[in-house]
Amino acid sequence: MTNKINWIFKNLHLLVSLSIVVPTAIIYGSPTVLPEHLDIKVETIDLSNMLKAVMCLYLGISLVWILGIWKTVYWKIATQLNILFMLSLASGRALSMITDGIPTGGYIFGIIAEFGIGLYSIYQLKKYTTE
Question: Is 0.90 surpassed by the pTM of this model?
Fold first, then answer.
């Protein structure tokens, strides 16, 4: 039981990231579903193409996180990728808020979650690579 609890705590940042990023990817890649969740109307093929590319990028990164959870030898690289992914997204959102204004609530949640997960992932990396 203790091993399972330790496994959950060690992988918590990756599990939380997966639970947020995979559904987000699917929403981004589904032009008919997107307006229901975000204030985005996909009216051009170019926008649809860009969103599907972002969807696949998110899913590809999620596969690395799954690999890091499944095979401990990949845990460190999965955690480093999680830090880069989350803090890059949060930085982009912060830049947009400064230059473009305040977005809808979903994106406000996004910046808070991304900064939080990114910082927690740094903590995890330090904690589990020094043991």
Answer: yes
